[in-house]
Amino acid sequence: MHIAITGGAGFIGRHVAAQLVDAGHTVIALDSLLDQVHADPMADADAFPGRVVKGDILDESAWAELGEAEGLIHLAAETGTGQSMYEQDRYRRVNVDGTRRAAQFAVEHDIPIVSLSSRAVYGEGRTLWPDRGIVFGERRGPGAVAEASRESDEHHPVSVYGETKSEAEAVLSKTTANRVPSAIIRPQNVIGYGQALHNPYTGVLAAFLARLREGRAISIYGDGLQTRDFVHVSDVARVIAWALQHCADTGEDIVVNTGSGERITLLDLAHFAIDASGRTDVAIEHVDVERAGDIQDAAADLTRLRELGGPMPAVSPRDAVADFIQSSWQQPGADSTVWDDALDELQDKGLTS
Q1: CA–CA separation, 345 and 82 (whole Å)
Q2: Helix (H, G, I), strand (E, B) or coil at 91
Q3: Quick check: 343 and 291 in contact, CB under 8 A?
Q4: 352 pLDDT tier (thresholds 50, 70, 90)
Q5: Residues noted as catalytic
Q6: Could you identify which of 3, 217, 252, 294 might form a hypothetical disulfide with 71, taking C-beta atoms 3.0 to 4.6 angstroms apart as the criterion?
Q7: Sign of the alpha-carbon dihedral angle for 158, 161, 162, 167
Q8: pLDDT tens, 14-43?
Q9: pLDDT tens digits, 138-169
Q10: Helix (H) or strand (E) holding 247
Q11: Which of 72, 76, 105 is nearest to 244 (CA)?
């Protein structure tokens, strides 16, 4: 199969492409190669195992260069939770309008499409309260238990990024309904080798790495008991590749979560990173600040993926963190002040409390 991948030269895209090529497929990428995402755009393009078309997601001439693709994987997106709160038009343009164009391309070429969404659509997700039962979209309180989110759960995004991903899902479903099969993948926090180390919106683990390399204390916002589901990029790539083949074989439309299947706290994450780095001299400091768009708890229920015969995660969160820290230790990246500056910008815009 000849497969087009939007955002193919990015972190997840390169892993997906490698797996597809190993399975005997050919690939082509459409990627804007933005500096915020790519420290060395040309090196990332060269690392892609196929041709890379440089272009904007809404550039018709760029889409025309993708040729006769037999499947489409749509990964291109703006992903910064905090940044989305003050770059709303940009995020809606890329994430919503870009997904609409990708869906139209799939319909025009009569090919299956896989679109990467986000766990951010759930917001605070599913919580079990002793007196109220299951409640969606509220933070865990005394006596309440955070439960893993299911694909059928209500959407309660708390960031503009999450809103755009929820809107993009609706756009994809409406555009492709009864025309071509589609898969929506909702990953948890994806980590692993190749993650952008200079981008302050790429995730908390890159910030931990920068501070560990400098011997600075790791900063955690709040008490560190917030929970997340950190999943290795190879596990996410396997689900994406499987989903495209599943849609091609069955003609079904599917929505599935992907994650590690384990919930850990941010304190756990910090300790995993310290252990992997060997920098046991580095302390953990708590910062009394909350950023707009942050949530308390997130984890994926993988029951639906299992029922469909999809690939289950093979890498534990601890091992995923170790892989990221050890494989990235000698890679060039920004110093930790980049994350300090990003927080300052949010504070200047009134997006912290």
Answers
A1: 10
A2: helix
A3: yes
A4: confident
A5: 161
A6: 3
A7: positive
A8: 999 999 999 999 999 999 998 888 878 888
A9: 999 999 999 999 999 999 999 999 999 999 99
A10: helix 233-250
A11: 72
Tokens of 246: 């599943």
Sequence length of the chain is: 353
- Asked whether the beta carbons of 273 and 220 are under 8 A apart, the reply is no
What is the DSSP annotation of 270-290?
A: HHHHHHHHT-TT--EEEE---
Closest CA to 228 of 303, 164, 320, 110: 320
pLDDT the model gives residue 77 = 96
For residue 178, give every residue at least 6 positions away whose Cβ sits within 8 Å of its Cβ, in sequence order, or none.
Answer: none
Provide the 8-state DSSP code for 149.
B
pLDDT digits (tens, 9 = 90+) for 202-236: 789 999 999 999 999 999 999 999 999 999 999 99
Helix (H, G, I), strand (E, B) or coil at 215: coil
Structurally, what CATH architecture does the domain formed by 2-289+298-349 represent? 3-Layer(aba) Sandwich (3.40)
**What is the torsional sign of CA 156, 260, 265, 350?**
negative
CA-wise closest residue to 255 among 179, 162, 151: 151
Q: What is the dihedral of CA 77, 80, 85, 87, to 10 degrees?
A: -50
